[in-house]
Amino acid sequence: MAALRRILCGGKSHVSVLLRREFHKSSPAALQVTVRDALNQALDEELERDEKVFLLGEEVAQYDGAYKVSRGLWKKFGDKRVMDTPISEMGFTGIAVGAAMAGLRPICEFMTFNFSMQAIDQVINSAAKTYYMSAGLVPVPIVFRGPNGASAGVAAQHSQCFAAWYGHCPGLKVLSPWNAEDARGLLKAAIRDDNPVVLLENELMYGVPFELSEEVQSKDFVIPIGKAKIERQGSQITLVAHSRSVGHCLEAASVLAKEQIDCEVINLRTIRPMDTDAIEASVVKTNHLVTVEGGWPQFGVGAEICAKIMEGPAFNYLDAPVYRVTGADVPMPYAKILEDNCIPQVKDIIFAVKKTLNVI
Hints:
Layout: H1 2-6, H2 12-26, E1 31-34, H3 35-49, E2 53-57, H4 73-77, E3 82-84, H5 89-101, E4 105-109, H6 120-133, E5 143-147, H7 163-167, E6 173-175, H8 180-192, E7 197-201, E8 209-212, H9 214-217, E9 229-232, E10 237-241, H10 245-257, E11 263-267, E12 270-272, H11 276-286, E13 289-292, H12 301-311, E14 323-325, H13 336-342, H14 346-356
Parallel strand pairs: 2-3, 2-4, 4-5, 5-7, 6-7, 10-11, 10-13, 13-14
Antiparallel strand pairs: 1-8, 6-12, 9-11
């Protein structure tokens, strides 16, 4: 308010503008919430809402989670609802899947999804296929969640994106949140779903704050699985991304706007089932498409989007081939300069847009 006093003689319009700013800073309607805290809130509310929900994984209880996503939950809900497990993904994932078959709603945390490879038989052959093979008699309401994709300086065995891996398998729903709203709404939807759901978080996004509206803060707020969101309206080219790459697309769109290139940015949110209708509607409007992802190019999420557009009505509206921006087709190097060149950057998206529009 000191700034307000300093400009009291500066005119009515200046005062009203500053008053509005001060009001919005203190207004309870919108909060700055990190992705980590959004996930924590969703877990807290769903554990409280349904006594069948429980969380298990390595260090999720007494240590508050390797990434502090489960901070405070063990103290609040106790050993029966928040359980530390041995370092055995195959073992505790099997326990979780069996619990889901028996009527509980487990949330199974992998310290990173790279370690989910140790439990791949439980995730695919047990969780994903049982609902179908039992003719709908045995639902498996389980959530597999944890950090996915490249982090920083952790090399090849800790830097894979599993969106395409799990998106390939019928029986799973696969979600990939970007911001705090996505994290909160998608996790709550996943916990309430009767199907096995894979929630692919991003380690580098955990500490990033985003504004949450009053609506999103509601305990009843969920994001429908299978619906993408247009983060930025545009008319000349469509950028489709998921997870951290959505932010890169928005940054690239802001830079390109200064050059009178108008980008529409779509946040996929859900990898499977994919919101093909939203992508097609955007392509019909913009006539150009660039896909962006952190995973490898071969058989990737972008490749699937290309195929869907090729096979559908939107193909006739394309004025240029679809361009994919992906991670490099190599195991992730450890050296930072090589790592940076293996992960899609804003400059790579800008180049792809200009190439697609033939303005280079």
